[in-house]
Write a structure and sequence with these properties.
Length: 116
């Protein structure tokens, strides 16, 4: 059972290190799209929240899996749980924002900039 906890902790550390880099690159690509529309400010805000909370929860959770003294600290346990809850809420909010944005794009006809 300890091997599964160790493997999970190492995977959490990897996710905590890789996620912010990939999320920032993805956000930069969305913001630099020239022909397409920019993402909504709410989407950018939620993505920035996730760039902060996912690594915090993953890296501290990984350390807690490798060293039980980290999980034994009430303050660190509270930080891990709050960051994990904020990450889950952030992913849910991002999913709702993306779905609302895609349904709005289907309902609105494209703008014709060519005036005759």
């Amino acid at each position: 059972m300890d091997i599964f906890i160790t493997i999970g902790a190492i995977l959490l550390l990897l996710v905590g290190a890789i996620y912010p880099i990939m999320a920032i690159l993805g956000l930069m690509a969305r913001l630099n799209r020239k022909p397409g529309p920019l993402p909504a400010p709410a989407q950018v805000m939620v993505r920035m929240l996730l760039i902060a909370t996912v690594p915090l929860a993953a890296i501290l959770g990984g350390f807690a899996g490798l060293n039980s003294a980290v999980w034994g600290s009430n303050v660190l346990r509270l930080v891990i749980l709050i960051a994990a809850a904020a990450s889950v809420i952030g992913f849910a909010a991002l999913g709702l924002l993306i779905r609302a944005d895609s349904s709005r794009a289907v309902e609105e006809p494209p703008l014709d900039n060519h005036q005759s």
